[in-house]
Design brief:
Structural class: alpha+beta
Number of domains: 3
Number of helices: 13
Strand order of the largest sheet: 1-2-9-4-7-10
Oligomer: single chain
CATH class of the largest domain: Mainly Beta
Domain HTH araC/xylS-type: 196-294
Radius of gyration: 21 Å
Pfam family, one: AraC_N
Largest sheet: 6 strands, antiparallel
Keywords: DNA-binding, Transcription, Transcription regulation
Protein name: AraC family transcriptional regulator
Helix content: 40-55%
Strand content: 15-25%
CATH architecture of the largest domain: Sandwich
GO molecular function: DNA-binding transcription factor activity; sequence-specific DNA binding
């Protein structure tokens, strides 16, 4: 084992503990940085993970993508190179020893600049696995992240020093065992970059009918090649990815905007509320009205037999 790998508990835990006293997610004054705390083990829950570095300072979590698990703890970090629909699970946590950590959004422009400046070769199309990977934490990376967290206690220095530390963290990642995965998304003539552009388009146009040939042509790929690489990186077909985006936006509309089931279904591009309810139930494990009531902390009414049948 490389002696630079960290085997002892992460020293970042004390800093994060000071800033996150309650379970949940906490945005910070540093752009792109959020902290989290979980006081109990939780089953996998649906989430969208942006291109990010995710660290656990205490406890253990796992990200599930297409049935494949990516466990990470203080000795292993998670890195994602695309916007990935996934399920996040808390594996080790308790009220006495909460699972705590951070999420730092990656800046592709910084990665591309550093690759050019350092002279790293662009990773071309021999892509392995999905758009996520587990890397071994190293002392230089942990030290750089520690400096970033220290700025939370010196807020006046954040505008000046945070950009410098963020560049160092990106640099350390490019010299980690996840370097090739990150370089894939910066190579403008590479498949990973093109899939990322297709995902950007889907996020903006998820409510419109999807034509695979047109989207493939938009990112300069043949339809079979596009479909193959899209599934390889995201563990979903483009149509499944669009469906995931639609259902999560509908969930947001019902929860936050208080739209009813039919209005939410039509708003995200469904033509049939019954089809919407069936697909919603498959993703979230409950029919729409039942799920929203649970999210609001309400005791849901008994579901009508029709809605229960539509949910699964």
């Amino acid at each position: 084992m490389n002696p630079s790998q960290i085997q002892s508990p992460s020293p970042l835990a004390a800093v994060i503990d000071r800033h996150v006293g309650e379970p949940g997610d906490c945005a910070t004054a540093i752009p792109g940085l959020a902290l989290f705390r979980r006081d109990q083990v939780t089953p996998p829950s649906v989430c969208m993970v942006e291109p990010s570095l995710i660290l656990v300072a205490r406890g253990e979590k796992s990200l599930w993508i297409g049935g494949e698990g990516y466990p990470y703890d203080p000795s292993r970090f998670l890195v994602t190179s695309l916007d990935l629909p996934a399920n996040s699970e808390v594996v080790i946590a308790s009220a006495e020893q909460p699972c705590i950590g951070l999420v730092l959004k990656l800046d592709v422009s910084i990665l591309a600049e550093l690759i050019a400046k350092v002279g790293l070769p662009p990773a071309r199309d021999r892509m392995q696995g999905k758009g996520a990977g587990i890397g071994s934490m190293t002392e230089p990376l942990e030290t750089a992240v520690g400096r970033l967290l220290a700025l939370l206690d010196e807020p006046e220095a954040i505008p000046v020093l945070a950009p410098l530390v963020l560049r160092e963290i990106h640099y350390r990642l490019l010299h980690s065992d996840q370097s090739a995965r990150l370089r894939q998304i910066t190579a403008v003539d590479g498949q990973g970059y093109r899939i990322a552009k297709a995902i950007d388009w889907l996020k903006l146009n998820f409510s419109t009918p999807l034509r695979i040939d047109e989207l493939a042509a938009r990112v300069q790929m043949s339809a079979p090649t596009f479909h193959h690489h899209f599934r390889q990186l995201t563990a979903m077909s483009p149509l499944q990815y669009q469906k995931w985006l639609r259902l999560n936006e509908a969930r947001r509309l019902m929860l936050n905007e208080r739209l009813d089931v039919s209005r939410a279904a039509f708003a995200v591009g469904y033509e049939s509320p019954s089809q919407f309810s069936r697909e919603y139930g498959r993703l979230f494990g409950a029919a729409p009205r039942h799920d929203i009531a649970l999210l609001r902390g309400q005791v849901p009414e008994t579901m009508p037999s029709g809605e229960a049948a539509q949910a699964y």
